[in-house]
Amino acid sequence: MRILVTGKNGQLGRSIHKLINADTKIDNNQSSNDFIFVGREELDLSSESSISHYFDRSNKFDVIINCAAYTAVDKAEKEQELVNQVNHLAVKQLANIANEQKAKLVHVSTDYVFDGTGGKPYKETDKTNPINVYGKTKLAGEKALQEIMPTDAIIIRTSWLYSEFGNNFVKTMLNLGKERDELNVVSDQIGSPTYATDLAETILKIIDNKNYQDKEQSTEIYHYSNEGEIGWYDFAKEIFKLAKIDCKVCPITTEQYPTPAKRPKSTLMDKGKIVEKFSIKTPYWKETLCSCINNIENKI
Ligand SMILES: NC(=O)c1ccc[n+]([C@@H]2O[C@H](COP(=O)([O-])OP(=O)(O)OC[C@H]3O[C@@H](n4cnc5c(N)ncnc54)[C@H](OP(=O)(O)O)[C@@H]3O)[C@@H](O)[C@H]2O)c1
Q1: Residue 284 annotated in active site
Q2: Among 80, 113, 172, 259, which is most buried by a count of CB atoms within 10 Å?
């Protein structure tokens, strides 16, 4: 299969790349799939003409994995037009292109499509109600995709993504914890962290799955995160414990830490559907946090 991966410099794009590289080394550089990774230099999702231009000049793809997105949740409040273009209109255009090419589309979305007041883990069918611009544009992207591609696409909603790459909570805590003796961290937002390598593995497993490769299967939404639930405060404490960093963490409320974009309070997601359909593993968050911290500290 010829597989296009967008967002090559992002956390998820780089995690997919890391796994493909590791696999091809094991298989002596023989891979049955041909992966093409692109960043905004090759395929700029903020420009309709850049998207058309890229696909006009490329050979057809069998699968498009869209890891690119506008992810700066606070900045998004001020750049609504750009965020809408990247997270909504570009997804619509990618869906049209996937249809024309008879390609499958794997699109990644977010727990921020929910308002966080559900009181129990969200199922894929639960009512969405995003409370910030980022969440609204991601939901608009999901809806456009579903309308244009009633078959042959999947949307994977994930949460609290972190990795060895780019900017994320784990890396920020490791850096701040080494500089400071004490840190305030919000304790009343609950979710499930997701190691990007686990999500990357999940995506690769799905596209290799016979069920997925059959054509004209209905487009579905799936939830994927690591197992377990935690708040940012406890997450920070565990990061310091695993990394043996001596920094005191003080719990604060969301009200004490105002941000331009509102954050949902609890966005736990029910992963039963993806686990059952594709026999996916959802490792407990602490297990894979440990691997990620080891990789960061040992610069792997
Ligand atoms: N991060 C999270 O906590 C989180 C939580 C839930 C869901 N998600 C979703 O998971 C997916 C992967 O997230 P991630 O954490 O890997 O994101 P990320 O690290 O921020 O990477 C996103 C990538 O998108 C690229 N991008 C942004 N604007 C672009 C444009 N105009 N044209 C082309 N590429 C553009 C960025 O390029 P540059 O590197 O050039 O800036 C970046 O490489 C996204 O769909 C995101 O919405 C993330």
Answers
A1: no
A2: 113
